[in-house]
Amino acid sequence: MTTTPLTSTSPNTDEYEVKCIAFFGDDRSILMQNANGPCPLLALANALILRNAISLPKRAIAMGKATFSDLVEILSNKALDDGGERGRSADIEALVNVLPSLNKGLDVNPKFCNGVTGYEYTDKLVPFDVFGVELVHGWCVDPSDPTFPLLKKYSYNQLVEMIISSQSNGETTVEAETAKSFLDGSAHQLTYHGLTSLHTHLPENTLAVFFRNNHFSTLFKHEDTLFLLVTDQGYATVREIVWEALSNIDGDTAYVDGEFKTPSIADDYTYSNSNLNNTHASADDALQAAIAASLQPSLPSSIPSVPTYGPGHSETVASISPNVAVGVALSPPTSTNKPPASDEQIAQQLQYQLNLEERSRRDEELARQYQTEENQRGREQEPPRREKKKSDSSCILS
């Protein structure tokens, strides 16, 4: 699964806003998303910051902004200091070569039957090894599932290539139909088995980087609950909202503060956050639709597009701890539960909406650019052959 760098006209794609949060009684200065979205460099750096393995320059904390160059320098120096002790010069060299690309995209190819750490290994994953931060996912198949023997043979890229090859050859095999059904039924890229596997795999109070739908997030297990660090720029000034619970597979969430307690201001942000989630989901759906449309001229209509993140999947939604409420579930306000909005809250909501509209505009531009590039490649491609071709599937990192 290839993540494509986000093209943006913003001049600040190499800057990250800094937010001070509470973490087990201490202050930590974490990084918020920029126009490149939840990128691997951001998730990795925040995991190391929370481990107290690295810290941002005092200048960056005072200014409230850190640059991409700051992060590369900090991580490179940390790796050199630790690598000298461990004798990992080869890994350090690979790390220095990879770091400059991690603020935008990363090639990740999950394997469905190798547990939460199952990926096709490439040099691009070296940073996670060097710093001892696991890259995990939850797109896992239960060994008792009838599809397990088939899916065990493929990574994500190989599975998509098998489906495309089957359709291109005019032979819709049982394997191809089964594979397509699996992708359609797990469009969230998180299964119930994957969620339980994450709980089993991660020890208490462990930090990791979580990959899902081409997004990279800092993951933390605390008191038998999985939490994702909230880094959306809309929350940069909201100190009370720090984590969101990863307790089900459908995207519904609950927010907590730095001490993993229900934030007192949660109701004030119910409306804004509901709009935020809906807008991002709509942008993702539009982008995936554009990608699927770009494939249509060269592929049969039954070829599956890259799985989308949104409603309509067939897998049953399940909660890890259905009897334990974590934080405050955010839902659209009603006439009885919507609190009176202050002038400051209204201003914040308007700013959120402006940010969302700008992000939506960038996503639409990227979708059009991607479709143009795919159509151009389709015109230049030779007719399909029967021998195995390299995978050319790609996803978007927003």
From TrEMBL:
Residues 356-367, 374-392 have a biased composition (Basic and acidic residues). GO terms for molecular function: cysteine-type carboxypeptidase activity; cysteine-type deubiquitinase activity; K48-linked deubiquitinase activity. Residues 15-260 form the MINDY deubiquitinase domain. GO terms for cellular component: cell periphery; cytosol. This is MINDY deubiquitinase domain-containing protein. One of its GO terms (biological process) is protein K48-linked deubiquitination. Pfam families: MINDY_DUB. Residues 353-398 are annotated as: Disordered. It comes from Triparma columacea.
